[in-house]
Design a protein that fits this description.
83% helix, mainly alpha, single chain
Length: 127
Amino acid sequence: MEAHSFLPLWIALGAIPGALIRYYLTRICLEKFGGEFPFGTFIINLSGAFLVGFFATLFQSIKADLTLNGFVIIGFLGSYTTFSTYALDTSNLLKLASYKRAVLYGIGSPVMGFLGVELGIALAQRL
């Protein structure tokens, strides 16, 4: 059996610690700094962006197996934060000189995400 057939398992195994670390780091930040600013999410998103850039570059340079990429980047960092993937995708579009797409994606994602949240709230409030 190919190693890639176990990729979903490796992704799931990476997601568990990513989600738990996100949960506990958010709680620690709430206890330490209060809830007036989302320090937990802010720290998670920025550290996730740093980590995805670091590991994506490292794994590419060492030609890492797809399962390691799946465990760390898709599983761990994917459940730790989706912001890291958004930042990496924007970076990749810029590296490909797809400037219009990079701007559309880079600005469109948070703006449309915010609008999506607001629409979801409005719909739920009407039920």
